[in-house]
Amino acid sequence: MIIYALLGLTLILAFVSLRLIWKAGSRSLRVSYSYLLTGISLASFIYLYGTWVYLSIYADDVFGILALLLLLTGFFRKKQNAAGPSSWRFRANLLLAMLLTGLSVLYFTGTTGSSKVVNLSFPFKKGNYFVLQGGKGLPTNVFHFSLRGAVYAMDIVKLNHFGGRADKVFSKRLSDYEIFGDTLYAPCNGRVVRAYSNNPDNIPPNMKRGPKNTNQVLLETDSTYIFMGHLRMNSVLVKDGEEVVVGQPLACIGNSGFSTEPHLHIQVHRRQEGIPWYLGQPLYIHFNGKGYLLNEVIHNR
């Protein structure tokens, strides 16, 4: 299962980063700084990109605190009289540290340059939500980047009291996922271009590729299209051509279409004449005036 593989990789890399920081703290900085740089850069990378939510987002905080404690205590530990790394390992450490640092910087900046922004109302009521996929293009939004025009698309899940998006790391029972059945509300005023929910919800990890297999609501405003997908079967409350207002219930979250677990997929495009909605200029979404990146929590009070 890909979820177990991703979580396992996160935990392994986290352990390796802590081991490198610990190792660097036992030696003088003169001979260990390549280990230290590699450990810090790897810890930063896995803190930002790690799939901690499959376990709990609080595990990410615990890891960050451990890394800082190891870093600080390293300055006070008794130093061993040990040799530094070999020349090839020294160069490999520095190269890896530079690569990981670059990826950490790109987490915040993305690769799309200056993005055009659209401001929407957050489409859920009270609760803590999580950006499972999102960001400003590569490398954080790599899956959506490969889809037609979805460079700023977001996948959103809901968190339970333990900081997880489900009762288990993986479950075939849809009700175990916190967001399943959650009501989706209109993020803006607009007109319904397309709305249907006759597709069944997938039992994880099964999924059905193809846009017609995704229960969806597509809204249009004077300047944009807003697509919301993976909705629950027979849950859509609006019809094609209907005018909706911000905060109006639209549907419930499900697991239809190209989706391995319940979540909301949302993407926005500029409205341009003569081309399909998904080929219009993609817009970076702000909810209530704030933008969110991969693995960020949306606190909706």
Automatic annotation (TrEMBL):
CDD domains, A to Z: M23_peptidase (cd12797)
Any Pfam family matching the protein: Peptidase_M23
UniProt domain M23ase beta-sheet core: residue ranges: 181-272
Organism domain of life: Bacteria
Keyword Membrane applies: yes
Record's keyword annotation contains Membrane: yes
Annotated TM spans: 6-22, 34-52, 58-76, 88-108
Gene3D superfamilies, alphabetized: Glucose Permease (Domain IIA) (2.70.70.10)
GO molecular function term, any single one: metalloendopeptidase activity
This protein's UniProt keywords: Membrane, Transmembrane, Transmembrane helix
Signal peptide: none
Full protein name: Peptidase M23-like protein
Record organism: Chitinophaga dinghuensis
